[in-house]
């Protein structure tokens, strides 16, 4: 995994020269959320599609679709 600095440098290189502070803040926010999500998945694992569907399907025997 790359460092935060490397990810920010890459992000800055992809953004236009006239990027607004607000747009930069948004992209940094998204970058942080993605990095945190990937780290959480690495530490805690992930769920298969089947496991997610089982967890989110109502348990009263009816199908939500």
Binned, the helix content reads 55-70%
Q: Quote the beta fraction.
A: under 5%
Distance between the termini: 39 Å
| Rg over alpha carbons | 18 Å
Number of separate helices: 3
User: What is the general shape?
Assistant: elongated
Structural class: mainly alpha
Low-confidence stretches: none
Largest sheet: number of strands, sense, barrel closure: none
- The overall number of domains is 1
Count of DSSP strands:
0
Order of secondary-structure elements: HHH
What is the arithmetic mean of pLDDT?
A: 92
What would you note in describing this structure?
- The protein is an all-alpha fold and 65 residues long.
- The protein has one domain.
- The chain is built from three helices and no strands.
- α1 packs across α2.
- It is elongated, with a radius of gyration of 18 Å.
Could you give the topology of this structure?
Elements: H1 4-14, H2 21-44, H3 49-56
Entry keywords:
about 60 residues; elongated; mainly alpha
Quick summary:
By secondary structure, the protein is mainly α. The chain contains three helices and no strands. The protein is elongated and about 55 Å long.
């Amino acid at each position: 995994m790359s460092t935060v600095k490397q990810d920010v440098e890459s992000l800055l290189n992809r953004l236009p020269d006239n990027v607004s502070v607000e747009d930069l803040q948004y992209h940094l926010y998204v970058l942080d959320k993605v990095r945190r999500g990937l780290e959480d998945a690495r530490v805690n694992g992930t769920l298969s599609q089947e496991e997610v569907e089982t967890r989110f399907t109502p348990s009263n025997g009816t199908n939500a679709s």
